[in-house]
Amino acid sequence: MSKDTEFLLGIKDPNIKKVRIISDSQKKGPLEAQAVLDYRPKACLRCGVVNRKTIIRYGWRQVQVKLLKSSERDVILHLRKRNFKCKACRSYFLAATTLTQRHHTISNNIRFACLEKLSEPVTMTHVAQELNISNSTVVSVLRTYERDLLTHYDWLPSVICMDEIKSTKRVNSSCKMQEKGN
């Protein structure tokens, strides 16, 4: 059942385990799911020391991740992330996932859906209401990908050749064209 639930919720990260629905399907409101994110890190994110029993598991932290709608209901994933401690540099860090960006609680699928909806001629408020996110989130998603969306004019050639330019009606070529037409 866990694999089916992961498929329906769009979770592709192999480190997210024990996915299950915890809200009643008869109740109104968001669909709530629960999962655990745990793995053994290869190296410390801060100092880069390779994990040879220098990085220890150091408890849990629960975050709420907003996922795409399912069956016209909002989906909230209560994700328990593993907290790690590096003995070498004495720093702490959370387990990372491909489901969201680091330090974010809105899934990448919602961010991509937001970009897709912004390509249509609708307002940002409409996009925010459809995806159940704030207007400022829509603006920040647009600003994040602004460089990719803008037209880059630096690739144009320095010389452009054009053929058959007509600037005004009094140009000789336009007069010849009118005489041929009569």
Overview features:
182 residues; alpha+beta; five-stranded mixed β-sheet; 28% helix
Globally, the shape reads flat
Radius of gyration, rounded? 27 Å
**Percent range for β-strand residues:** 25-35%
How many distinct beta strands? 5
Count of individual helical segments: 6
Arithmetic mean pLDDT: 83
SSE string: HEEEEEHHHHH
Roughly how many Å apart are the termini? 80 Å
Describe this protein's structure:
This protein is an alpha+beta fold. Helices cover 28% and strands 25% of the residues. It has helices at residues 2-9, 108-118, 124-131, 135-144, 146-149, 172-181, and strands at 16-21, 31-37, 55-70, 73-86, 92-94. Strands 1, 2, 3, 4 and 5 form a five-stranded mixed sheet that branches. A hairpin with a 5-residue loop joins strand 4 (73-86) and strand 5. The radius of gyration is 27 Å and the shape is flat. It starts with a helix and ends with a helix.
